[in-house]
Write a structure and sequence with these properties.
Elements: H1 8-21, H2 31-35, H3 42-52, H4 57-70, H5 74-79, H6 82-89, H7 96-111, H8 120-123, H9 131-142, H10 151-160, H11 171-181, H12 187-200, H13 219-223, E1 240-249, E2 254-259, E3 270-271, E4 297-305, E5 310-319, E6 329-333, H14 344-353
Parallel strand pairs: 1-5
Antiparallel strand pairs: 2-3, 2-6, 4-5
Helix pairs in contact: 1-12, 3-4, 3-9, 9-12, 10-11, 10-12
Length: about 350
């Protein structure tokens, strides 16, 4: 018989399912590892959770392992050069996360002796840590009873309770329901079990409901089509912004680069010269906006979608006989472009002008 609401027995079934079917992830202490005495490393948990915001597990694995090889401890990360951190982050997107990552590491190392606060309240006082990350670190690293609500958990909760309120307005209700389900025992495993359930069983399309440990109490399974949850408010169309990018290459096959201002969109990242576009305004798209005199030629456009807008850049290329440019830039050999802190949109612009740029050995 269908139970109207999930109960403690459902949570026990979920944890049993997690013990058998958990994902093995490089930052995770799995149930078998925990049984052998392993404990979660707060640095690993925090680093992975910051990286996983707006990014897939598949994409994050290599970055996580790279960061640990470069900076094995939070003290190592705190002592690193900001430019090196930005270079290692390049390609993950949402670059404010990388800047806050460095700031947070410095605060933890300097003010907390290299140890993270164990409470949600203490964690939220650190740079770049909001409600979700604080709850995740508190639960997974310190086994604190916290409401961990990522996209996967939102989907599970919305279906369990057939929540009609659309996101994002439903988040407070979902958070309260998630906390109500969280057991005092194994709250970290419960949080990770909910994440895994959403990622592998309670998927956005064609969920495997027959395999779900919550199938005996899922309201959406009985009263509606689970795929219709969570309800979402209609999305507003993203505005299109325009700009230009200028890719110069000299006779030694080096590309002219410069650093963006530390604050603002893509702050502190590396770029090719361009016009003054932003989320709120267009930049000049004409060849007259060239950063310095050179035989510039148009070579097409590239598009990139940010969180709040789409950007379309007109790309120009110039071959120059010798190095020239503004005082704040430098000439980078094509072979080392991959090592620079170039955001994806800048890689697209360079590749449009120099198709072989990121294929060079």
């Amino acid at each position: 018989m269908m139970r109207e609401t999930p109960q403690a027995m459902d949570v026990a079934l979920l944890l049993d399912w997690y013990d058998r079917h958990h994902r093995d992830l490089p930052w995770r202490v799995s149930p078998p590892m925990a049984q052998k005495g392993a404990a979660a490393d707060p640095y690993h948990v925090w680093l992975s959770e910051v990286m996983l915001q707006q990014t897939t597990v598949r994409a994050v694995k290599a970055y996580f392992e790279k960061f640990l090889s470069l900076w094995p401890t939070i003290e190592d990360l705190a002592a690193a050069e900001t430019e090196d951190v930005m270079k290692a982050w390049a390609g993950l997107g949402y670059y404010a996360r990388a800047r806050n990552l460095k700031k947070c590491a410095e605060v933890v190392a300097r003010e907390h002796g290299g140890r993270f606060p164990e409470s949600e309240e203490g964690l939220k006082l650190l740079p770049g840590i909001g409600d979700y990350t604080a709850a995740a670190v508190a639960a997974i690293a310190f086994n604190r009873r916290s409401a961990v609500l990522d996209g996967n958990v939102e989907r599970v909760i919305s279906r369990l309770y057939a929540i009609e309120t659309p996101l994002p307005a439903a988040k407070p209700e979902m958070r309260a329901l998630a906390l109500g389900l969280t057991p005092a025992d194994r709250p970290g495993d419960f949080a990770q079990a909910m994440m895994d359930l959403g990622a592998t069983i309670c998927t956005p399309r064609r969920p495997a409901c027959s395999l779900c440990p919550f199938r005996g109490s899922c309201r959406a399974l009985v009263t509606a089509d689970p795929e219709t949850f969570p309800r979402k408010a209609a999305k507003k169309p993203k505005p299109l912004r325009l700009g230009a990018a200028f890719v110069a290459i000299d006779s030694s096959e080096a590309v002219y680069l410069q650093k963006r201002p530390d604050k603002g969109l893509l702050g502190g990242m590396t770029e090719v010269p361009g016009t003054d576009w932003s989320a709120r305004r267009d930049g000049d798209t004409s060849i007259e906006a060239q950063p310095f005199a050179a035989p510039w030629e148009p070579c097409g456009t590239v598009s990139h979608v940010f969180t709040h807008f789409e950007l379309r850049l007109s790309v120009y290329r110039a071959s120059v006989g010798h190095a020239r440019g503004a005082a704040n830039g430098w000439w980078e050999p094509i072979g080392s472009l991959k090592e620079q802190a170039l955001p994806t949109v800048m890689k697209k612009a360079i590749a449009k002008a120099i198709p072989q740029a990121f294929k060079a050995k």
